[in-house]
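Pilot study result, target chain (243 residues):
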Amino acid sequence: MILYIDCESPDLYLKDPELAGKVAAKHLRAKYRIENISGKPCLIVRFDRLSADLVATLKPDAVICSGYYTDLDEYSEESLKGLAWLLREVPVPTLTICGSFQLMGQIWGSRIGPMGPIPVDTKAKAKAEADADVSPGMAKMLCNKHEIGYLKVSVEENSDLFCGLPNSIKVRQNHYWEVKDIPNEFVLIGQSEVCPIQGLVHKRLPLCGVQFHAEEYNDEFPDGKRVLENFLNSAIQNAKDQG
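Predicted structure:
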């Protein structure tokens, strides 16, 4: 079994039904893609329902943590306890994506936050916020440095996560927060011109993460699929080796 942790705030699901539908559809598509790649069932679990007992009961082969639209500073520390435990203890191979990648960095001692403001006059900013058919967090993105779309990321070809890929890939980006520095015990395996920390892997634990959305690939931009394949194949083989 593969666990897919839905890291979106419950408040978004309750207060913004239209956006909630889009988010839920993305998670369901990710679930199907993970199942197709791994050949194993994928269970979606809310981040605030995650616990050591649940992981011990389900015994997953791997965990993938999603991104989220809500700014991290809007989450309570209590609600993140289970996720923080997972990303610190790493009981099974774990991959973090976008927002959860940033949370992983913070848990391991890095600074995280917005990439920085871009010059914009008051009228343009007001129009961007009014026109944004997205959450308030995404509206903020339009007035800050950000990465949106299928963009280039330079990767370490000798990294297991990027095995079989060229040193420059194109993957889906959708963020305006970033990890500011490389946490202790991690190695940098990906970077872009706008966001210098795009991929990290722990030196000892089966923990890695990417700033981009590896799960949002298509026929024109398939590199994210290979990233998921590399992670899942390695995790499943690891589970077999451990019996």
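One observation from the pilot: Residues 17-38 form the longest helix (22 residues). A full batch analysis is planned for the follow-on phase.
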